Records
---
Amino acid sequence: MCCTAAASGSRSTGLLEATWQGRSHSLSVRRRGNGGSAVRVTIVGSGDAFGSGGRFQTCIALRPDELGHPPHTLVDCGATSLTALRSQDIDPNDITTVVITHLHGDHFGGLPFLILDGQFRRRTQDLTVMGPPGTRERLAQAMEVLYPGSSTTQRRFAVHVHEHAAREATTRAGVHVVPFEVRHAAGAPSFAVRVGIGDGTTMAYSGDTEWTDSLLHAAAGADLFLVEGYSVKPVRWHLDLDTLARHRHHFDCRRLLLTHMSPSALDSDLTDWDTTHDGYTLSL
Ligand SMILES: [Zn+2]
Ligand SMILES: [Zn+2]
């Protein structure tokens, strides 16, 4: 299927239809045809929750791949993300949409800082947050714990929260998201997400999860599948390299990249894998 061929640089031309048939609905993802690159991806944070390898927590920035166009979409915004964005010279005020996979601090804990930074730097552009059911309440709670009173402050911009419904496609501010429920305990449902911007280019991200066939559905037809390679051997709620290797040939994606690695994975032999690091960029 995709991944080794993709890593060597080949890609299909013309139109590829990847279709997932669900119980009551179906969705299709159109892969771009010939033409130039459409989306620039920056891995702003490639780490796990605990700063393993000195890496920032999960944060991926997307933008149209045109000169001078700033990143406008984040996929996950871990607690360290404001620092990580600044280290990549990305202005947090340019971010208009944040897609959240699940409600753990290393994936959504940067939102209060992003919002407060916008407040203090006189942001006027609204911010859209697309996250799991419960995002609205958990974000307000996080803001109140960290900066009491901040959840109800009047600002020059609004924060619009849209909560995922499994396998329901939603488009907000030009960002197309399909969430796929996965197996990870976060006090609310957790998701892998497929995110499309531009002319149909898609990036899928596993979030944190044990193995589930939902990952195959999320990655189907994606130009990039960013996947958790947390540990070498199976651990509860996370994805390990042994399990991923067993399923690797089933993924129908153009390229597969490992992220969110713990010390055991970082110290293992990764020569058979494509891996990320903070500041890694690629064009899709
Ligand atoms: Zn998690
Ligand atoms: Zn995590």
---
Amino acid sequence: MAKKNENARIRREIEQILYEEGAMTRARMSSILHERGNYRSLPSDSSLTSLLAKNSQIVQVGTEKVDMGDGVKNKNIVYDIDREMIRSEEDLIFTRPYSSMSESEKKRATHCPTCRQKRLMKDRYDECLVCSRKGLY
Ligand SMILES: [Zn+2]
């Protein structure tokens, strides 16, 4: 499998984990990915940071103080799926950025007439789920 596809698969896995398990830090995400362990290579800490930060489906919901020992406390960012936008498991697919799509999803994706992003559309004549949900914020 090409590296690009492997990354997209990890992106989808991260979305699914956040959706199912709820808000968590990068360290927790890393350990869950490790437990599931069905990857050629797990993302490094810095690439996991960018996978979490550069996905429009994921939001930062706060910070958690983590004791690093010696009384040193680090603030770790807590991430969650954007629950305003994503309300059911099916919504994950319809709000998915092109970079997270599988090959078969990419083939079915069309341009949203409102935001011009390539998305899987529930109805190809309507706007994408991201646009329709954002209109309601
Ligand atoms: Zn749109």
